Amino acid sequence: MSSRSSTSGVQADDNRRARHAVRGGILGNFVDQFDIFLPVIALAPAASTLLGAENVIATAGLVFTATLIGRPLGAAIFGPVADRVGRTATTRVALAGIAATTLLIAAVPGHEVLGWGTVALILTLRFLGGVFLGGEYTSAVPLAMEWSAPRRRGLASGLIMAMSPVANASIAALVLVLLAVLDPASYAAWGWRVPFVVGGLLALVMLGYYRRQVADAPASHQAPAPASPLRDVLVGPDRRVFVQTFILMTGLWLLTYMAIPTLTAELTRAEVFDGRGVTLALLCATAVSAVAMALCGHLSTLVGRRRFFIGFGLLAAVLAPLTFLAIFAVDSPVAVVALCAALQVVTVSVYGPVGAYLSERFAGGVRSSGYGLGYSLSIIGPALYPYYLPPLQEAFGTYGPVAVLLAIAGLLVALGGYRGPETDTRAPLR
C-alpha cells in the first residue's frame, strides 16, 4: 500500500471517528438535559401524591436542589478523571450512573408506602444522578469539540447546546400526552414513572453507542494533564481563565432562570393562559430557541467568540428586559407566544457557542476540569433566585425586578466575554 493510500485511510478513519464523537456529544447532551428536566416537568402533576401533600412546594424544591448540588460536585469529581484517564471512558461511567439512578427513581414506592422514606430515596437518587449528570457533559462535550473540524466547531457546539430546549420540549410533550390519556389519579400513581423509564433507557442506548462508536481524540489533540487539574483550574495557572468563564456563565445561567422558570411562573400567576396553554406557548418558544442556538454557534465562528459574547450580552441587557415587560403588556395570545419566543432568542440562544468557547479557553490537560467547573459552579447563584427574587418583587413590583435581573445578566455575559481573549476558531484544539 502506498503512503498516500495509507494517509487517506487514516484520514477517513479520523473523519468517521469525528462524526461519531460529535453525534455522541449532541445525542448525549439530549439525554443529559432530558434527565435534568425530568423532576421539574414530569413530577409536577404528581408532586402532592408522590412527595406528600404537606409542604409539597418546599419538598419539590429540595428535589431540584439535590440535583443542583450534585452537578458541580460531579464536575469536580469526573473532570480530573476525564483529563487524566480519558474522556470516553469517563462518559461511559457517567451514562451508566445516569441510567441507574433514573431507572431506580421510576421504581420508587409511593408516599403511601414509605411516607417520607419516598422523599429521602428520591432526594438521594437525584443527588447521585446530579453527580453523574455533571460528569457526562464535563467529559462528552470537550471530547466532541476536540474531534470537531475548526470551521464546524461553533455549529457543533450550537447543535449540542440546542439539545437543552429540545429535551425540555420532548418531556413536556410526553407529559402532555400522558395527561391527555390518563386521569389525574393514574398519572399520579404510575404515569409519572414513564418519562423516567424513557430517560433511563435513553442513557443505556447512549452508553452502548459510546462503547461501540466513540474514542478519545488523537494524542496530538491533547496536552498532558498536570498532577492536579482541579488545583490548576481553581488556584493555579488557569485560575484567571476560570474566573472569566465563571462570570460569563453566571450571566448565562441568570438569563436562563429569568427567561424560563420565572417566565413560566409569571405567565401562570397572571393567568395569561391555563396550565396547558402555558406549556404549549413555551413549547413554541423552545423550538425557536433551539434553532437560534445552533445558528448562534455558527455565527460565533464567523464573527469571533469574544465579539459574539460582548455583542450578544449588550443586546440582551437592552432587549431582554423590554421583551419580558412587553409579554405582560399585550392582550393578544398570539402576540404573547411571539414575544415568549423572542425572549428565548435574546436570552438562552447565547448558549450556542458555549461548548466550543469553554473548550477553547482551557488547554487539553485541564479541559474537562475547566469546562465542568466553569459550567457547573456558576449555576449556583442564579439558581437560588427563589430566595432573592420574591423579596425584590414584594418591594418593587412583580415584573420590574425580573427586568433588572435580565439586564444584569446580559451585562455579565458582555463583561465575561470582554475579560477573555479572542480564541482561535481556525485551529484544532490542543
Would you write up a description of this structure?
This protein has 430 residues and is an all-alpha fold. It folds into 2 domains: 12-222, MFS general substrate transporter like domains (Growth Hormone, Chain: A); 224-421, Growth Hormone, Chain: A (Up-down Bundle). It contains 20 helices and no strands. Helix 1 packs antiparallel against helix 10 and helix 7 packs across helix 16. The protein is globular.
How would you concisely characterize the structure shown here?
With 430 residues, the protein is mainly α. It has helices spanning 3-41, 47-51, 56-84, 87-106, 111-114, 116-147, 150-161, 163-181, 184-191, 193-213, 229-234, 239-269, 275-303, 305-327, 333-345, 354-361, 367-376, 380-383, 385-396, 400-419. It is globular and about 55 Å long.
Give short descriptive properties of this protein:
80% helix, 0% strand, 430 residues, Growth Hormone, Chain: A, 20 helices, 2 domains
Oligomer class? single chain
Q: Residue share in helices? A: over 70%
- Per CATH, what is the topology of the largest domain? Growth Hormone, Chain: A
> Which residue ranges are poorly predicted, with pLDDT under 50 across at least 5 consecutive positions?
none
* Total strands: 0
For the biggest sheet, the summary is: none
CATH architecture of the largest domain: Up-down Bundle
**Average predicted confidence as pLDDT:** 89
Q: Give the N-to-C terminal Cα separation.
A: 31 Å
Helices and strands, in order, run as: HHHHHHHHHHHHHHHHHHHH
Shape by Cα distribution: globular
Q: Specify the CATH homologous superfamily of the largest domain.
A: MFS general substrate transporter like domains
Residues in β-strands, percent: under 5%
Domain module tally: 2
Q: Class by helix and strand content?
A: mainly alpha
Radius of gyration: 21 Å
* Number of helical regions: 20
CATH class of the largest domain, please?
Mainly Alpha
